[in-house]
């Protein structure tokens, strides 16, 4: 068991990306099934439908460091199918949008749909099952799954919203170096 657990925390058994080595396979998703290492392009392509997964990058083949999909170039497009771009996309304010999920607190790139069939921004977020923090110019949202989890924990374990949020912040970055938003 120990050898397998150590392997799962490292580079695993798969060193080559499915694109046959066009890019360096240094990225690993902690939330996807499997232990495959991928190149930048493949990890972004695989996560167009999973923009809140936690990605680690292997630095100098010695250790892993957390990196956001936003830093890798992924931008979530609301109002369209995953992977489809809007010709009249409107970026979220200052290109910084925060989503709180059961895996932690994520900073993502987000574009709202600006097509002729456009809906209000908070409606586009609700269609993605993200509850916006405000109805005017939202910059933060919580996933419905997170709200369901908090609902259950608050009734069964009497967890306060403060404790729940801080546990999510620690799950995002347990070093305490980066301040909690």
Short description:
By secondary structure, this protein is an alpha+beta fold.
What report would you give on this structure?
The protein is 26% helix and 23% strand. 22% of the residues are buried. The strands form 2 sheets. Strands 5, 6, 7, 8, 9 and 10 form a 6-stranded mixed beta sheet that branches. The protein has a 4-stranded antiparallel beta sheet with strand order 2-1-3-4. The protein starts with a helix and ends in a 9-residue tail after the last helix. The radius of gyration is 18 Å and the shape is globular. By secondary structure, it is an alpha+beta fold. Strand 7 (97-101) and strand 8 (104-112) form a beta hairpin. The chain has 5 helices and 10 strands, in the order H-E-E-H-E-E-E-E-E-E-H-E-E-H-H.
Distinctive features:
23% strand, 6-stranded mixed β-sheet, 181 residues, 26% helix, alpha+beta, globular, 5 helices, 4-stranded antiparallel β-sheet, single chain
- Number of contiguous helices: 5
Order of helices and strands: HEEHEEEEEEHEEHH
What is the residue-mean pLDDT, rounded to a whole number? 87
Judged by helices, strands and strand pairing, the structural class is alpha+beta
Shape: globular
Query: Helicity level, as a percent range?
Result: 25-40%
- Poorly predicted spans: none
The radius of gyration is: 18 Å
Could you tell me the number of beta strands? 10
Main beta-sheet strand count, sense and barrel state: 6 strands, mixed
Residues in β-strands, percent: 15-25%
**Terminus-to-terminus distance:** 38 Å
